[in-house]
Records
---
Amino acid sequence: MADESLPLPRARTGKLVERPSRLTRALRESGPTVAAGLAVLALWEISVHAFGISKFVLPPPSMIIASMIRDFPYLMHALAFTAGITIAAFAAAVVSGILGGLLLTLHRDVERMLWPYAIALQVTPMVAIAPLVIIWVGLDRVWLGLMILAWLVAFFPMLANTVQGLKSADRGLQDVMSLYQASRWQRFRHLQLPAALPYILTGARISSSLAVIGGVVAEFVAGSGSSTGLAWVIVESGTMLDVPRMFAALFILSIFGLAIWRLTSMVQARLLSRWHESELGGER
Amino acid sequence: MTDMTPGAQPVMRMQSLDKVYPNGTVALKKLSLDVYPGEFVSLLGPSGCGKSTALKIAAGLTGHSAGRVQRPGEDEAKGIRARAGDIGFVFQEPNLMPWLTVFDNVHLPLKLAGVSRAEARADIAAILDTVGLGGFRDSYPRELSGGMKMRVSIARALVTKPKLLLMDEPFAALDEITRNKISQDLLELWQATGSTVIFVTHSVFESVFLSNRIVVMAARPGRIIGEIGVAAPYPRDAAFRVSPDYTAHCRDVSALLTRAMES
């Protein structure tokens, strides 16, 4: 399996005569990933033909790509729906998670009062409440139900990480704030919030991918043809035995999930760039 | 150097302070200490003698169980509290905000007091030059060495022009070469600004080199068992470290410290 043609990572101590351009660096970073992906696709294609696997079981990548091209408008329409639900739910989770975190850390009694319920919300399987939520919002507003369900899944990591972050301000830094008689607000603004930022961003990354999962699962549960997202495409194509299109929808879903992940990572790198351990990489 | 004219008002006055923790541990017992303007006083003692606790009480970072504390600018009779920034504190750790640049870290005490960056710019630039970090104003703490971080911490403590500077074993984590250099720079700074310093340490040599008064404490319960004046003139430099005067003081202080350990 070892591929001799792939470059070995260069030792950190090695001197770089020239700083590589952005493009070469991007190629060096994503090159191996893309190469591995292409290799798997090629192997897949060859195996399907070599072993004569039925396209109803495992269609070759060429057929999936063809399906993607043929049904492009339909698939993009479905993606737009799913993406809309996911992004709205994620945004709601970020805002409500941070606000909820603030509320919970306001006072120990507030935390005692609400924290167990937050956990209860988290441990209740979303699939179990989905039918109820769909009934509540009404079948003519299934999108709202899906959004609420995706939000329910994405909310907790955001909340938990915010709470953790707000509580994690260093003792010594708190002494500095006390020494200069900082007000409650100043303490929050200049110490707690920046100290919580790495935690909040980690929460956002987890919750972004959970929003995708939540949105898709909710769509499966809602079913009934009233929704038009990618999950529904998979269900519908399945009943029509259009397996290539199932795969096409699946691929688009994965690519969308990856894009969201990448985006949140970029935001994280941007916000923490110079001060936080996690983003300093080999710079030391 | 010391401005101990009879009748001078102490900058800081601690009168028979007790500190008892909820679990019954007596951290301090009847500790009394007056510090006069311009003094450089070291609190020296074995670990657990409550020297850091005494300093935290002085700064108002922790409470005391009995006794009185008179901080600079404070007037109990008139109910006037010490102004934030009248006391500077340099902690054992640099305690810098990792998300702020050197400049913004030094600006922090002023910002909390409502002074904008623009208004503070000149003062901060001057203080950074004084501690030898003029070229690092845009660096983040992560990018600095231990000694440099400590210099930023000192700059932050001085930026409010405090009447009293409290230092809690600030150089304990530094290597000896860095420590000697930064100690000497601290003395120059102290002379230039005419400030008053209480310096907590467990190093006999450090205390003799820096202070004009060394207060020796004993543990269990934390209390003062004696004090030694160091009359050697400032500025003190590397030559002072090898002078007979220095050696003699180190011997005296060590002897007192040994008594503290045995008592």
Note: Chain B touches chain A at residues 59-61, 84-85, 87, 89, 91, 93, 95, 97-100, 108-109, 111-113, 140-143, 160 (CB under 8 Å).
---
Amino acid sequence: MDLQLSDQHVMFRDELRAWLKANMGRPWREELRDPKATEDSMIELRRSWQRKLYEAGYLGMHWPAEWGGRGTTEVEKSIFEAELSRADAPPILNVLGIGLLGPALIHHGSEAQRRRFIPPMLSGEEIWCQGFSEPGAGSDLAALRTSAVVDGDHFVLNGQKIWTTFGPWADWIFVLARTDSKDRYGGISFILVKLDTPGITVRRLRQITGESEFGEVFFEDARVPRENLVGQIGEGWRIAMTVLAFERGATSLAAAERYGRDLGLLARTCKEIGRESGAVREKLGRLLVENEVLRANGLRMLANLADGKVPGPESSIEKIFWSEFDKRFRETALDILGPGGQLVRTSAEARLDVDWSREFLWSRAGTIYSGSSEVQRNIISKRVLNLPQEGR
Amino acid sequence: MKFELSEDQALLQSSTRDFLSSELPLEKSRTVMEHNADGYESAEWRRLAEMGYIGLTLPAAAGGQDLGAIELAIVLEEMGRVCVPGPFLDAILAASFLAAAGKQDALLADVVSGKSLVTIARQDSPFSGNHLEPTRFESGRVLGTKYFVPFATRTDALLVTTRQGVVLVRAPYDIVPLQTIDLAQRFGKVTFDHQGALIGGPELLERVDLLAAVGASAMMLGLMSRALEVTLEYVQTRQAFKRPIGAFQALQHRLADMLLKTESTRSAVYRAAWCLDTGDPDTALACATAKAYAGDASRYVCGEAVQMHGGIGFTWELDLHFYFKRAKTLEQFYGSTETQLEKALAAAGY
């Protein structure tokens, strides 16, 4: 057992820290509370920040060299994410493109697709959104009904996608569409669609935060060239499952950095406002302990990656842990702060160190998206605990 | 970086498991716990000493093996799995104090060899409050009463914490046995008006406390790992409504949470042990984290194990109650959750 970063990884981390110091603008929380900030201006800020990271060679680092790779592994990627989180850097805009579509293209795409789509995806010139969920297909994703019918050298798409993150700003969407209505899993294909294609309408959905980071996408006889099919017809489900496994990589370290910073600020506020009773101290202590367990889980995952172990279904444990903790943390923060914690960012008297009310609302999303806590528990009981399945 | 145990550590783990399953299986320990008022058998204690377990983390000069907190955690996790009764952790903590104080070398060697037993007498009240007068050391004499002194009836000497420092007192002393719900652990109330020797300041207890936190958490990790395994076997065999009860999602999701808590405890315990061994700046925070989290997690996991067994889970006959009780006792001793939360907050500068 050895939880010390190797010299090589320490060097990578220190270089990155120095680079961030020299190249990062204001911390993200300061950008967010700028009175001139709008959702659109924040998107543009994130786009230019992503470009800087791309030019410095930090995106797609662990991919093959011709696609931005520099011979690093998942370990550097995890360190990269933890350090960005520690520095409170703006979140990477094209996170769905880089996190999901990139690996899908590298493993299942054609050479022409990789050449066409990967560079602008990394640089932030083209923003991607993910067309998986539908009104009738969320946790039960294979129930999706959006259809793609072959017509000559095109697919004709009809249907609706929903909860589409970055939909309102994206240029492209990767869609899971049904090419065979009789084959539940084998009848699904993975198709790349330009959002300005005639027949496509994108609508903003207003989230409980008041923001519209996600939207819905309607397809009415939208014609998409056949060359935009990734893999073969009917391979969509398999491809989606591999990319979702990428989405569930080592995230605990980055999460622990972010929560740890906010927790430190909460503790400072408690001292300032005289909230130091035993009841408050116990709450703070429990949050601190849970966040340190999150960090320990992250270090364990990082060490396993460094040791050449591929994360399996145990990444479901990580997902449940950080997302459920996020909810408890933000709720408790509001309890401790009292009514002032509920003030929205733009209100008089709102605290400016952490946007507590927004974090409180956002925390409700983490246990729903990317496989709800319930789905994760199903995965654990089936694939880790090997329990018999209900009703079978 | 590597989370997995090294080859030597894995060997220690498997040889300890083998040793315990042949020498200290639960069916044997159960008889000892139920019938031996002292809580453990001398012959078994000598075997543990012969095998080098008592000296595991102690200096070679004292006959120990000079190994680290990771190795201690490995052994204690295994002991937790089979609910080994006795003063194993208590003896190691007292011996660590003696080793750090650098006095009483002969006594230290006797503890390592299993000839003598020394434990630490800390608690000045039967409850957590500080309503009673703390023990004091005046003109060479220890005056006061200590509660929950581990395995007091079997000790040859005690390390007694006083306002003036830690004082070594040799038996005999007046002992009133105290019995908690946990039969793997025996305690005594000891009243002192005795000659003693001041052998160290309270600062020497700091490292002992870190080791105590890691050790107790490792034992809780063993308890919950085994309780979860036993429960997983049970829910796959026990039938209700014509199917194994493990097919019901109402249990599956809770079993998933039990795994989450067990594995998260594992991450926290071994990180703390690693920090302690490497002198990492996060040691104090990591040790407090491990103990506070393991306390909650093991109570939860062992409690859920009892619940999922139904009526049989509430019987004396099934072994699970030993795990459930031991988890509760360990949660409150070796630095209670409340104490660990304070330590964590202090370590983080909150």
Note: Chain B touches chain A through 48 residues (CB under 8 Å).
